[in-house]
């Protein structure tokens, strides 16, 4: 009977020791692991189901069933060194898999982390032996208790390591904004990069052809500037497409553009990482730009743009630039980190807020927003209205107001490349100052669309009556 009680007591001691080990590991602070350009925080959960979760704040999570056993591995991306990433990318040929290189470094560091946990398991087992209410604990029992913990955790880790299958990420579950990631990656790997480069080259010929055509029509905005005339380039919804900036650069090189008005959605997911990649996208475009944030932008993106010399961000109210008084209102979604869908009530409130701003202003030359639904109460009084969001360009002269939508200057970003529905658009707008009215009035608008692949273009010229 005593021997049975002794065995039962030892079993309880082992269970107690293992339980303490699980609690310690479960709530152990994550450690930092570097894979060159990437820095992750790593932690494991003992009572799991053999999954690996990679977190990309604020984009979301990628989860895959990668191994056997009850361990879950969690990796949270904390930092990306863009200089190292650029150097790393330049050393890998297209035939190599960049993900395999990162996976190799990551696996080595995770194994080191597992070894550290195994040592911690041994120590916790030895210490737990001292906590057990028994006067017969000795060094040998402490060694046994530590070894049992060490062997149990090592077994779990070994099962996870040797059964680990990185290919499981091809069938991963995506949460948050990253739900779009699978088709984005496939598009870029297959032919997206080559298409973007080719589009950039084709823009040179297209813009020069448009310019020659306009000169023949004697309506070119590239002629010598007349007194009081201001040339505006209206762009919108670039959505991270680098080819859009080739388009903009060629237009500003050929025409005498005084001001660029961007009605939002410069990026797709509203992250600073996107802005870092696009940091030099406007290099060589030495033209003042007024930016009205859209629903795909975010506070982080807005702050980054505010640091640009040539960019003025108009979030609410009236801004005066290049002689123009511009009323604007940012999309509500740009004020929060995560992309949200505005309710009808929010849109209604913003439409009323914009109308109130305009009604109390001494003078407004044009009104610019991202979502045309905000224009509901200002479609009157001969207002000039600019917007984006719909990805469908148009110029409407309704008699008592003019409404212009630039469509998407970035051809809907990666989505356009995926569907090969490549449709870049922008508007060249000319306005003239009237001393009599002490205001600027629209003279003409040129809607330029560049479509399909290989690219071809369409051009529509609109002339407005100056009553």
| Major sheet summary line | 7 strands, mixed
Can you give the helix content as a percent range? 25-40%
Radius of gyration: 30 Å
Number of domains: 2
CATH class of the largest domain: Alpha Beta
Q: Which runs of at least 5 residues are low in confidence (pLDDT < 50)?
A: 92-98, 180-196, 219-225
What is the correct CATH architecture of the largest domain?
A: 4-Layer Sandwich
Describe the structure.
- With 467 residues, the protein is α/β, with parallel strands linked by helices.
- It has two domains: 2-171, no CATH class; 191-337 and 344-463, Purple Acid Phosphatase, chain A, domain 2 (4-Layer Sandwich).
- The chain is 38% helix and 25% strand.
- The chain contains ten helices and 19 strands.
- The protein has helices at residues 2-26, 82-90, 98-131, 139-162, 181-217, 243-254, 272-277, 299-306, 344-359, 414-419; strands at 31-34, 38-45, 51-56, 60-65, 72-80, 173-176, 229-235, 259-262, 289-291, 311-313, 316-321, 324-329, 366-369, 383-387, 394-397, 401-405, 423-434, 439-451, 456-463.
- It has a seven-stranded mixed sheet with strand order 10-9-8-7-17-18-19. A six-stranded mixed sheet has the order 1-2-5-3-4-6.
- Helix 7 (272-277) links the parallel strand 8 and strand 9 (289-291).
- Helix 3 (98-131) packs antiparallel against helix 4 and helix 5 packs parallel to helix 6 (243-254).
- The chain is elongated, with a radius of gyration of 30 Å.
- It starts with a helix and ends with a strand.
């Amino acid at each position: 009977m005593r021997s049975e009680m002794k065995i039962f007591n030892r079993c309880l001691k082992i269970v107690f020791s293992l339980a303490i080990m699980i609690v310690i590991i479960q709530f152990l602070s994550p450690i930092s692991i570097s894979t060159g350009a990437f820095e992750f925080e790593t932690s494991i959960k003992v009572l799991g189901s053999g999954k690996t979760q990679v977190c990309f704040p604020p984009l979301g999570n990628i989860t895959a069933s990668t191994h056997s056993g009850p361990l879950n591995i969690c990796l949270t991306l904390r930092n990306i060194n863009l200089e190292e990433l650029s150097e790393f990318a330049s050393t890998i040929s297209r035939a190599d898999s960049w993900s395999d290189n990162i996976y190799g470094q990551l696996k080595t560091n995770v194994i080191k982390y597992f070894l550290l946990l195994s040592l911690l398991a041994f120590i916790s087992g030895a210490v737990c032996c001292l906590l057990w209410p028994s006067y017969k604990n000795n060094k040998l029992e402490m060694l046994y208790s530590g070894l049992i913990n060490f062997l149990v955790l090592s077994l779990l880790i070994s099962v996870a390591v040797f059964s680990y299958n990185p290919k499981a990420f091809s069938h991963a579950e995506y949460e948050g904004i990253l739900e779009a990631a699978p088709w984005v990656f496939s598009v870029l790997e297959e032919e997206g990069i080559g298409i973007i480069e080719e589009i950039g080259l084709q823009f040179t010929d297209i813009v020069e052809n448009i310019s020659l055509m306009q000169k023949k029509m004697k309506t070119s905005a590239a002629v010598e500037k007349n007194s009081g005339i201001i040339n505006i380039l209206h762009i919108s919804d670039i959505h991270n497409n680098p080819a859009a900036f080739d388009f903009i650069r060629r237009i500003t090189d050929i025409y005498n553009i005084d001001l660029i008005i961007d009605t939002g959605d410069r990026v797709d997911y509203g992250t600073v990482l996107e802005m870092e990649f696009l940091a030099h996208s406007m290099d060589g475009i030495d033209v003042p730009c007024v930016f009205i944030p859209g629903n795909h932008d975010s506070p982080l993106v807005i702050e980054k743009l505010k640091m640009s010399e040539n960019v003025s961000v108009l979030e609410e109210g009236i801004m005066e630039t290049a002689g123009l008084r511009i009323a604007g209102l940012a999309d509500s979604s740009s004020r929060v980190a995560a992309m949200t869908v505005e309710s009808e009530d929010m849109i209604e409130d913003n439409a009323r807020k914009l109308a109130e701003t305009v009604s109390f202003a001494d003078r407004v030359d044009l009104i610019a927003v991202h979502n045309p639904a905000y224009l509901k109460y200002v479609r009157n009084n001969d207002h000039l209205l600019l917007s984006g969001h719909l990805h469908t360009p148009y110029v409407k002269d309704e008699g008592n107001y003019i409404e212009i939508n630039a469509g998407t200057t970035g051809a809907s970003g990666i989505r356009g490349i995926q569907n090969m529905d490549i449709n870049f658009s922008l508007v060249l707008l000319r306005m003239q100052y009237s001393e009599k009215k002490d205001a600027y009035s629209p003279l003409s608008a040129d809607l330029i669309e560049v479509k399909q692949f290989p690219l071809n273009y369409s051009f529509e010229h609109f002339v407005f009556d100056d009553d």
